Amino acid sequence: MIFVPTDLVSLLVLLMTMLLAWITTQHYLAPCKNFPPGPWGLPIIVSFMYFGSDIHTDMMKLSKKYGDVYSLKMGSHTAIVVSGVKAIQECLVQKGNDFADRPDTWTIDLFNPRCEGIVRGHFDNKWQHRRQFAHATLRSFGFGKTCMESKICEEILFLLDEFRSNIKTFIATRKDVEKFCKQQIDEHREVFDPNHIGDYIDACLAERTKHNSKVDFTDDQLKFMLVDIFGAGTETVVTTLIWGLLFMVLHPEIQERVYNELDQVVGANRLPRLDDRKHLPYTEATLLEIQRSGSILPFALPHRALRDTTLGGYNIPSGTAVTILLWSIHRDPNTWPDPDKFDPMRFYDEKNNTVKKSENFMPFSAGRRVCMGEQLAKHELFLYFSAMMHQFKFTLPVGTKKPCTEGVLGITLVPKQYDVVIKERHT
């Protein structure tokens, strides 16, 4: 015999108990058989109870317990975390098409509700057309080629003057960039001439006209494509250089060795050029170690499974959100002994005076969603860093405490604020 309460309070208690039981059951129910294991988490609180301020290091600790592919309760959904070079390569490269989509998240919805642009767009035919068009068009204007060197050098001269005059650089917010891009689109449209394509915006307007507006190049779409290009070309380069200065002031002996190599190869009468790069292996190795140690993108941008697939021997249902822990590649003690130590010799073959390559190194991610501006970023980082080391000596102010190398996680992982003394080398 089943007892059914008749008074209102008892009935509400019963309904709440049944609802709580249902929520708890759904919370702990795996999305499919042979789904990756992971920490339980509690309803409502989910897996956030396992994380402090350094989410990337906490996730790496969980991988030690649950393996390179494990699951986490994230709100009402269950996501998977992928760590370690083998599992990440399987996810991004070997099964790149299976995991090439982007999930819908509230953070993206706040400023890009239709997932427009290149970086956050869903992996469909329109997105593939946008990316292919953007890549081909930018390359036609010299993007990622050595012919961009003169333009980069103009920016470098401006930066060096900034150092000399000790003026703080203005950092634009995302809203500033969006406003600027919208303004540029409007100005280009007013004077657009399909017979004179002068830049990327002109090329997009021409493509839209060519296809009678059927192509996926609305003003908003073009705006977010421009914002993505700005972000890829500024945020990562600037943050890497800030880490570079920190490591140089903490390791003056490495800074001097870089300068001595530059002085020997380049001399004092000109700035380093891309042609010098092959003759500056220690400088290049130092820059690679800055990227590894700083690891400014602990996570690749989130992915999502496009279809039912497998990863690391586990079943992954279509629609599952995927977090790629790039930090685990760059801080794996099995690959990089004493990973917290800054040591350019990891990338430098002293016997042959060459740069050592490593497959355990993915500062630009990999696969179908690899950073489109990787080659340009490499050129910019080399030219900026070598010019700074060639022209200036960077030291800590006398009597100040050594800054720590623990980063603060935002859009990228940035070092905590520190002070630097800048002194010209050639006066």
TrEMBL record:
<dbReference type="Pfam" id="PF00067">
    <property type="entry name" value="p450"/>
</dbReference>
<dbReference type="InterPro" id="IPR017972">
    <property type="entry name" value="Cyt_P450_CS"/>
</dbReference>
<keyword id="KW-0408">Iron</keyword>
<keyword id="KW-0560">Oxidoreductase</keyword>
<keyword id="KW-0503">Monooxygenase</keyword>
<keyword id="KW-0349">Heme</keyword>
<keyword id="KW-0479">Metal-binding</keyword>
<dbReference type="InterPro" id="IPR002401">
    <property type="entry name" value="Cyt_P450_E_grp-I"/>
</dbReference>
<dbReference type="InterPro" id="IPR036396">
    <property type="entry name" value="Cyt_P450_sf"/>
</dbReference>
<dbReference type="InterPro" id="IPR050182">
    <property type="entry name" value="Cytochrome_P450_fam2"/>
</dbReference>
<dbReference type="InterPro" id="IPR001128">
    <property type="entry name" value="Cyt_P450"/>
</dbReference>
<protein>
    <submittedName>
        <fullName>Cytochrome P450 18a1-like</fullName>
    </submittedName>
</protein>
<comment type="similarity">
    <text>Belongs to the cytochrome P450 family.</text>
</comment>
